[in-house]
Amino acid sequence: MTVSEDRGSRLDALGRGLVRARIWVVLSVAAITLFFAWHAAELRLLSRFDELLPKDHPFIQVHRENAQTFGGANTVLLMIQVAEGDIFNLSTLNKIFAMTQEIDKIYGVNHYAIESIAHRTNRTLRVGAGGLMEMQPVMQTGPKTEADVDRVRRVVHTSQNLYGVLVSLDNKSALIRASFIEGMLDHRKLFDELNQQVVQPNLDDNTMIWVAGEPQLYGWIYRYASEIWWILGATVVVAWALLYVYFRDWRGALRPTLSGAIAAVWGLGFIEILGFTLDPLTLVIPFFITARAISHSAQMHERYYEELEASGGDQSVAIVRSFSALFVPTFSGILTDALGILAIMVVPIEMMQKLAVTASFWIGAITVSELLLNPIVYSYLRAPDLELIRERRKGPFHRAIDGFASWIVTPAAKRLVFVGWAVIVIVSAVFWTRLVVGDSESVTPLLRRDSPYNQAHAQIQGAFGGVEPLIVVVDSPMPGGMVIPNNVRTVERFQRSLEKHPEVGASFSFVDVITTMAMAINEGEPKRGVVPTSRAQIGLMFGAFFMGTSYAETARFMDASFKKTAIFFYCRNHRGPTIESVIAKAEEFIAANPLEGATFRLAGGLIGVLAAANEELLRNDLVLNVVGYSTMMLVTALTYRSIVAALLMGLPLVLANGLVNAYMGAKGIGINVQTLPVITVGMGFGIDYTYYLASRTREEWKDGRSLEDAVGEAIRTAGRAVTFTAITMIVAVFFWTFSAIRFNADMALLLGLWMAVSFAASMTLFPVFLLAVRPRFLKR
Q: Which pLDDT tens digit goes with each residue over 547-589?
């Protein structure tokens, strides 16, 4: 007995054993499924921004150490804008004051990291009778008279930390920034409170209010996330209809649906058991994992029909033969997908590592729903009529596959396939150069370009020229390090240097406080607004500014011992190239301009944390691809005991990856912490197509056929199911295009394209290579 025959007999015995023990197997699987279902019902839809960050990156360490003091990436931006006139009127200034007070009441806000001309932390010098100097908030209350309005206007126009930073240069807009504490942030609640308590009460015919920032962005995402249910519902209906039309029997629709449902329940329950949550931006991944279960099941059902006809309607024989014939390609396909996704673990980002574990388990659950239960489900269902099976072959779909199978083995087809794919690869290479790490456009790619959020973001950016914060911390181990004149002048030069970058709109630091105070002390004389030359004078400026305030209120400018401060740069966008060039310019200045007893530390704010994420992705992208593809090729080589098999079957995956990268470059889809997991999940798409085709070719060639006939028969049988499942999944993608969450729509189309390319390469290039190489592993 050969190794192959021995394995076949053992698989036959396993299939018969599962049917004999079907009651116990069904009860066991049902109990476990109920257990997972109970946990799945408790699963929460939640996004954690901190889980998107590479925790060991030095930028993230700076961010976490200083976010509560200087503000972090979880910042809301509210811009109040007037249609006629400017903001310096009683009505608008009172609205700004009221909005600032209401934001200060919202749960989770960092009360000392609110920036507004109406917040107590923004102060101005008032000189009283006898030369007494007193620091007061710019707006201690809402203005009551036109004189109050004129005073606020004068203070704003003479304060470098206000004019152009919190009030636009055209005086038509005012900005309020509010940072929120990560562990206390509830995106849904914050979204509702901002709208109901801050925005709606202050709108009128002359007043527009725009809201942006990461917390507001995720608030919109949560609002749109409920649409997933109608998308899934519509997809299930269409999939059922296609399965029924294809198999011409309700059993053909039930069997794949059962596999997908069980795998989904196990996967969702496992996520909750581990204490994880389901991110609304990764919902497309569970959808496609479930689609993999349906794909494997449709292949098995097609073989079951074939074995029923070959055995003359003997159901028990058909069950065992179909199980035995497809066990190896099905199991290997599932194992390859599961281990390939585990490659995401190499990226030190918590969200990706959680996704790697849960997605791998979810895919592994297909083994139970597809292989363990497959013989048992068939044994409980009545076998379809043989006449129905024969009638299926007379349809146009089957005739088209038969015609393609006859054509693909011809010499003309071989030449056309090789030339066609060579052209596709060359054209794709042109678009690879357009790929960027990070976001590729200024609006968020997570929502539609015309969404309310992106409109708000564009309006705020347009009014202020730059609102995306980059925070550079200056740290000194000794008290007083920040009042050394040389350090103050170096910080000022740093600001002016980075402000020259075309993507930096404005900056702010304690230097602006010093120069503003110097000007105020000298009766508002602009030429006096310069950095003092001595420590004593600098200390005097700070002393005057801090007079009558608490440490918490001034901490975002400078700590009480003058050891630590922050420099804020406001960038025009958060595109990957923008972040890279701004960080590079900052590092260049820092390297050439050392401080006395102090250190520049990069970097916090949204730009800083995105820079860290982008650097980590760039560093690990090659490793991720090498580990992922090496894992899949190793499984393939062990399955077929051939390196040649791994190379041939991995070819469609490499081509699909190349075309998907070209598509991303052409469409402006960047490689970031959201897109990378989806891309990695797609890496394994199509490997099972080649497994099924190779295994069937091997069967037919061993039976004495020529290789050309064997390949043709593999296309007619296994290729028919491959074609149907690919079409079904590509059609299902259609509903995702209606999602208001643009990211989910883009990623669904991306995975649909990946599946289409993998299918096309598996059905054309892979058979042609088999005929050209004539590999020996097919004879083993």
A: 656 566 666 777 777 778 888 898 888 888 888 899 999 999 9
CATH number given to 395-433+641-780:
1.20.1640.10
**DSSP result, 423-467:** HHHHHHHHHHTT--BSBSSSS-TTS-TTSHHHHHHHHHHHHHS--
Rg (CA), the chain: 32
Q: How many CB atoms lie within 10 A of CB 724?
A: 21
The strand pairing partners of 601, in sequence order, are: 473
For residue 527, name the pLDDT band (cuts at 50, 70, 90): low
End-to-end CA distance of the chain: 13
The residue with tokens 């970097």 is: 603
Q: Is 204 helix (H, G, I), strand (E, B) or coil?
A: strand
**What is residue 395's DSSP assignment?**
S
Q: Taking the domain 1-42+230-394, which CATH number applies?
A: 1.20.1640.10
Task: Reply yes or no on whether the pLDDT at 727 is more than 60.
Answer: yes
What 3 state SS string does 53-77 have? CCCCCHHHHHHHHHHHHHCCCCEEE
- 134 — phi, psi (to 5°)? -140, 130
> In what side-by-side order are the strands of the sheet with 564-571?
504-508, 564-571, 468-475, 599-604
Joined together, the tokens standing for residue 108 give 């989770």
Instruction: Yes or no: say if 177 and 76 are a contact pair by the CB < 8 Å rule.
Output: yes
Q: Indicate the pairing of strand 123-127 with strand 133-137.
A: antiparallel
* 96: nearest Cα among 168, 160, 192: 168
Which CA distances in Å does 416 have to 60, 754, 764?
52, 22, 10
Residues in a beta bridge with 124? 136
Tokens matching residue 750: 């991306």
Same fold: 1-42+230-394 with 395-433+641-780: yes
DSSP-assigned letter for residue 122: S
d(CA 484, CA 514): 13
E strand or H helix at 123, and its extent? Answer: strand 123-127
Residues 6+ apart with CB under 8 A from 737: 745, 748, 749
Q: What is the arrangement of strands in the sheet containing 173-180, beginning at the earlier edge strand?
A: 109-115, 173-180, 75-82, 207-213
| pLDDT for residue 104 is more than 80 | yes
β partners of residue 473? 566, 601
Tokens describing residue 61: 């360490």
Predicted TM-score (pTM) of the model is: 0.79
User: Could you count the other beta carbons within 10 Å of the beta carbon of residue 752?
Assistant: 22
Summarize pLDDT for 481-525 with one digit per residue, the tens. Answer: 777 888 888 888 898 889 888 888 888 888 877 777 767 666 556
Q: Which residues contact 571 (CB under 8 A, 6 or more apart)?
A: 466, 468, 469, 470, 503, 504, 505, 578, 579, 582, 607
Does residue 633 have a pLDDT over 60?
yes
Are 389 and 308 a contacting pair, CB within 8 Å? yes
Q: How many CB atoms lie within 10 A of CB 380?
A: 9
User: What is the per-residue pLDDT across 280-322, written as a single tens digit (0 to 9) for each?
Assistant: 777 777 777 777 777 777 788 888 888 888 888 888 888 888 8
Domain residue ranges of the chain, discontinuous segments joined by +: 1-42+230-394, 58-220+449-609, 395-433+641-780
Distance between CA atoms of 672 and 444, rounded to whole angstroms?
12
Q: Report how far residue 510's alpha carbon sits from residue 567's, in angstroms, rounded to the nearest whole number.
A: 8
The two three-digit tokens of residue 175, written as one number: 């900005």
Q: What are phi and psi of 690, to 5 degrees?
A: -70, -30
Tokens of residue 66, six digits: 């200083």
Give the span between the Cα atoms of 753 and 406, in whole angstroms: 26
Distance between CA atoms of residues 669 and 750, nearest Å = 10
Cα-to-chain-centroid distance, residue 480: 43
Chain-wide mean pLDDT for the chain? 82
How far is Cα 352 from Cα 157, in angstroms, rounded to an integer? 47
Residue closest to 116 by CA, chosen among 54, 168, 189, 178 = 178
Q: Which two tokens stand for residue 49?
A: 């921004």
